[in-house]
Design brief:
Largest sheet: 7 strands, mixed
Strand order of the largest sheet: 2-1-3-5-4-6-7
Strand content: 25-35%
Distance between the termini: 55 Å
Number of strands: 14
Structural class: alpha+beta
């Protein structure tokens, strides 16, 4: 059975770009299985998206290939990377996007991609470079590259956890870069000078009340029951949070 290829991008759900990446993969191998895992990673901000990728990809089986594209420097000097982390493969730009994948892996192999297609646009390496490389990896074909160490990639200095909002979902819930396991459940979170207590499930809180909880990815998320935390706090991507131990 062909290996699974999953896409994680900031392309959005409209426009041709995700479909063009699918076509590039299928042009190399018509038997490939492709799933769009997420198309609205924080736009132009690999330093925020980096904290989502390990959590989004964790449930997938070994040998899955992930095409990860948040690439505001496309066509510039940043390197293209392929990373094998605990038996899963990640392909994307060297701009910090894959830094947390590398750090949290028990076993990891990193290569800069030296292979190039016959035609490579300056503006769409997701289609022209990363998608074909992912298809090659999924087909067990070799891809030329040069080995790198963990400290040679961009983002190697990123913090283990990020006390900022890294994603806002369609309900207006605010996902942070903090792993819930690193925070005591009695802690209070402060956002925009407002204190937020922990809750376990939505139904515990009255409608309109805010709370924080450990979401399904194991990250701290701020929500308003039957409402939008984004609107309630006038929140934006990158807004900082503060964690206070409840005394």
């Amino acid at each position: 059975m062909p290996k699974l290829i999953a896409t994680l991008t900031d392309f959005g759900v409209t426009g041709p770009y995700t479909g063009q990446m699918h076509a590039a993969i299928l042009q190399h191998s018509e038997q490939s299985r492709v799933v769009d895992l997420i198309s609205d990673l924080p736009r132009f901000t690999p330093e925020l998206s980096a904290y989502l990728i390990p959590r989004l990809t964790d449930p997938f089986p070994v040998a899955t290939v992930f095409v990860c594209v948040v690439d505001p420097g496309v066509g510039g000097s940043r390197q293209p990377l392929m990373v094998e982390a605990d038996g899963k493969w990640y392909v994307g730009p060297d701009n910090g996007l894959l830094a947390l994948v590398v750090r949290r892996a028990s076993q990891c192999r990193i290569c800069s991609i030296t292979w190039r297609p016959k035609v490579l646009s300056n503006s769409f390496h997701g289609r022209d470079l990363f998608a074909p490389v992912a298809a090659k990896i999924a087909a067990d074909e070799s891809v030329q590259g040069n080995s790198l160490t963990n400290t040679q990639i961009m983002g190697c200095g990123l913090a283990d956890d990020l006390s900022k909002i890294i994603y806002i979902d369609g309900f207006g819930n605010l996902i942070t870069g903090m792993r819930a396991a690193a925070v005591d459940e009695t802690s209070v979170i402060v956002l925009k000078n407002q204190r937020i207590n922990a809750g376990l499930i939505f139904s515990e809180c009255p409608p309109g009340e805010s709370f924080w909880y450990a979401n399904s990815m194991g990250l701290i998320e701020i929500a308003v029951n039957r409402g939008s935390a984004r609107d309630h706090f006038d929140a934006r991507l990158g807004d900082p949070i503060k964690i206070i131990e409840d005394l």
